[in-house]
Amino acid sequence: MSVDDSQTPAPEKALPVEISNPPGSRAGTRGPRGIVIDPRMLLVGGGVALIGFAVLAVFLWMVPSAAAREMQTACRNLQLRDGPQRDGQALLNPALCPNGESCVAPVLAPDFTAQDVTGKQVKLSDFRGKVVLLNFWASWCGVCKTEKPALNAMASEMASGDFVVIALASDHSWADALTAVLEAVAPQAAPQGTPTMEKVKAAFRQALPNGTPFKVLLDPPEGDGNMGKIAASWGIKAVPESALIDRQGNIRAYFVNKRDWQSPVAETCLRSVIDGE
Asked: Does 213 fall in a domain?
């Protein structure tokens, strides 16, 4: 396809542009226009930039500090709902304190050995390097059963390679402990009548084929007592009670009585230890 040159419009005339001669140049010569910046403007701009960087630095410093304070407050408030306290701080049971008198966290958690459902002996120190929520409970404790659904839901959401939930049952038999777990988290599947391991295992396979998101360990009481030997050695006289233990094995927070483990304040407290190390 050709182009008809006769129809090509004439080029437009360039608009006149006035170019002033910079100082010191000869009249009639053309040269680049000079750009003159007032030094005072440089000083003002630099000052504004420095202020901006300072504000940003303060903001970045304050954000993690505010988050840390919020997390610490969450754990403190969660602890202070029950249990002894002094000067706004939760006091630990004297049995957990190095000098045998009431103290505040953190303190090293006493190690122990308990049995899992397979008969394996498990130590608390086996979980060193992980954050542990240790929940003391028993099948005969009605309050413990009401706490279990929230504990189960929280463990389902949060339990991972870094965080373990252990339910240490002050019970004489596995049948009693596991029946209580079913009654709490899958009541429709709990066996009726006197519990036996055969009935309980069958019920677990049907209702909880993947087991529970928390680990159940057995802490049998001595003789006809109600409180398990481990729980008693921790100075516990009633359940439920729970200890939040960090990766180094230190008790960072302790909770007397049940808690709503699905509440935002509980999650914030748990996250403060899981994510804060």
From this structure: yes
